[in-house]
């Protein structure tokens, strides 16, 4: 798209003042100076017409990719200033300056405001720099300190990543087993666990913890991580090599002797942070939904102090545990500098980390360009049903319609007239994601059989209906990631309670969704939905423990920016209070 704009500018240069003057005073002109006066308005009109044409062409091109360049095109093509002298006399950039400004704007968008590092091989991961063509520009500012820390972390990942001399040395020390000293390269190993939405949220949580503790993040390649996501760090890999010497790490679980919680429970780790016997070379962190009170001590200040002494940490989780990191005193100042706006942690880290591979990007772009790109408005509806039966269920369909009609996300239908005429027909495309096709078919048929009251043209699309979740299948996961990404490109979104699939789409989009409450007793809730208070995911299984008083407490009331979730009364989520 940026090349289209620049090519139009190159091929349609405005006439220079010198050319106008030469034409007016050409030898043999019968009128002399009067001829110059007659030609000048025509030249001005031609210039204005050319400028308007360029503006319309550039705007149309930008609109096809979400309009993220339209603001830059209006500014640079029309010139600066708002005086009454007309566009020709306004101070605007010359051709070369304009091209530079457009190119600079494109580069900033490609790098998502500096969030991404330049220099990757574009062909190996097309989505990394092409995503700006499909996604609206985020309204959420990125702190300069976050950008600084990301660049520093990239240096650390490159220095200590797999197959480097530093990594080889660290592996040899790990094999030795005991009393390994913490050095320049310390590691956090993420274990692949649970469904795709959970995995994405836990990788983001692990990455933030790695930044806070200056650890290299290595991810387990199980469940097709490399088939789904490109490498996020330049000139290195985040994939844990297959010859990692702790071969049993995938089998660690609650109660494993190597777990931090179990070692605290058995007093192998003393309250002062010292170890009973030799200090281990690694510890296992069990932060999954079934973790016990000893595992939850991970979120206490004193635990963080002795974990700093361990060079290798192995993490297994299915939770977005970021909210509880904000409650650890030693990290609070750093987190505030990283995220002055508290409710954009996943939004920024998710766009930094998760770039679909070329195969998945093909699924995304082909579907988007075929069915979604040309609509005036895009509505995404994510339907997740937590029921032992497959459905479809009437109460779920009722809830979806109640929410979308009540909040005016979908127009009412007219069951009395066969055709509704309107002079201003708008098109709306609705993307539905669900394991079941029944909801899509019934809503689509309703709008096919009856016109809308507003005269809007509504089309419905559902990319897949897998019937049941199968997180171990490669293509199932690829389609799931493609649908998460497609949902996140919606202008407005409706998501389901408790669904990590919906949390990820919401976080990537940067827009507050309408959240449908979880039905009880197969009855549609009233109200059916509400708009979320922040775009952050919910931590489903947080600890309820005050580390200072060593007593149980409501951790959703300790600080203003950590509150209980809309869809899960005991969950925690980050909100921005403006403080």
Automatic annotation (TrEMBL):
It is a single-pass type II membrane protein. It is an enzyme of class 2 (transferase). InterPro entries: XG_FTase (IPR004938). Keywords: Cell wall biogenesis/degradation, Glycoprotein, Glycosyltransferase, Golgi apparatus, Membrane, Transferase, Transmembrane, Transmembrane helix. Its main location: Golgi. Pfam families: XG_FTase. It is found in: Golgi apparatus, Golgi stack membrane. One of its GO terms (cellular component) is Golgi cisterna membrane. The chain crosses the membrane at residues 37-58. Residues 1-32, 64-104 are annotated as: Disordered. GO terms for biological process: cell wall biogenesis; cell wall organization. Coiled coil: none annotated. Residues 92-104 have a biased composition (Basic and acidic residues). One of its GO terms (molecular function) is galactoside 2-alpha-L-fucosyltransferase activity. Its EC number is 2.4.1.-. May be involved in cell wall biosynthesis. Belongs to the glycosyltransferase 37 family. This is Fucosyltransferase. It comes from Sorghum bicolor (Sorghum).
């Amino acid at each position: 798209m940026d090349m289209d704009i620049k090519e139009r500018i190159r091929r349609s240069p405005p006439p220079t003042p010198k050319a106008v003057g030469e034409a007016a005073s050409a030898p043999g002109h019968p009128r002399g100076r009067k001829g110059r006066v007659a030609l000048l308005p025509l030249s001005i009109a031609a210039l204005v017409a050319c400028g308007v044409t360029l503006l319309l062409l550039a705007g149309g091109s930008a609109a096809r990719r979400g309009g993220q360049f339209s603001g830059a095109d209006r500014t640079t093509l029309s010139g600066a200033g708002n005086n009454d002298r007309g566009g020709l006399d306004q101070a605007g950039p010359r051709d070369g300056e304009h091209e530079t400004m457009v190119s600079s704007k494109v580069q900033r968008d490609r790098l998502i405001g500096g969030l991404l590092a330049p220099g990757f091989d574009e062909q190996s991961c097309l989505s990394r720099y092409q995503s700006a063509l499909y996604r609206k520009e985020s309204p959420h500012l990125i702190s300069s300190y976050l950008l600084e820390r990301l660049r520093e972390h990239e240096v650390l990942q490159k220095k200590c990543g797999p197959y480097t001399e530093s990594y080889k040395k660290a592996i040899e020390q790990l094999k030795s087993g005991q009393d390994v000293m913490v050095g320049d390269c310390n590691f956090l190993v993420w274990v692949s666990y649970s469904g795709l939405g959970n995995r994405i949220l836990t990788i983001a949580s692990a990455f933030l913890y790695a930044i806070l503790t200056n650890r290299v993040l290595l991810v387990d390649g199980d469940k097709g991580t490399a088939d789904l996501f490109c490498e996020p760090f330049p000139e290195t890999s985040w994939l844990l090599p297959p010859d990692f010497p702790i071969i049993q790490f995938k089998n660690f679980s609650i109660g494993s002797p190597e777990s931090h919680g179990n070692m605290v429970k058995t007093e192998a780790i003393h309250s002062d942070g010292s170890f009973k016997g030799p200090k281990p070379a690694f510890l296992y962190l069990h932060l999954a939904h079934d973790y016990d009170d000893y595992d939850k001590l991970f979120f206490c200040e004193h635990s963080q102090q002795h974990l700093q002494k361990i060079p290798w940490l192995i993490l297994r989780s299915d939770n977005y545990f970021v909210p509880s990191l904000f409650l650890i005193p030693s990290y609070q100042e750093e987190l505030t500098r990283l995220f002055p706006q508290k409710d954009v942690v996943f939004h920024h880290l998710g766009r930094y980390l998760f770039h679909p591979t070329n195969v998945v990007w093909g699924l995304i772009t082909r579907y988007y360009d075929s069915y979604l790109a040309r609509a005036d408005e895009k509505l995404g509806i994510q339907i997740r049903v937590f029921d032992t039966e497959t459905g479809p269920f009437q109460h779920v369909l009722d809830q979806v319609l109640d929410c979308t009609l009540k909040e005016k996300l979908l127009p009412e239908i007219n069951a009395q007239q066969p055709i509704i005429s309107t002079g201003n027909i708008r098109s709306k495309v609705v993307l539905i994601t669900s394991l079941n096709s029944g909801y899509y078919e019934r809503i689509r048929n309703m709008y096919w059989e009856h016109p809308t009251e507003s005269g809007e043209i509504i089309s419905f699309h559902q990319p897949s209906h897998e019937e049941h979740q199968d997180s171990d299948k490669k293509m199932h996961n690829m389609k799931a990631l493609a649908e998460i990404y497609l949902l996140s490109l919606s202008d407005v979104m409706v998501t389901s309670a408790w669904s990590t699939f919906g949390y990820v789409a919401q976080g990537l989009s940067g827009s507050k969704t309408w959240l449908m409450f979880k039905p009880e007793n197969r009855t549609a809730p009233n109200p059916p939905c509400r708009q979320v208070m922040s775009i952050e995911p919910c931590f489903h299984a947080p600890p309820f423990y005050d580390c200072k008083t060593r007593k149980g407490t409501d951790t959703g009331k300790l600080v203003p920016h950590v509150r209980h979730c809309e869809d899960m009364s005991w969950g925690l989520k980050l909100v921005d209070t403006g403080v």
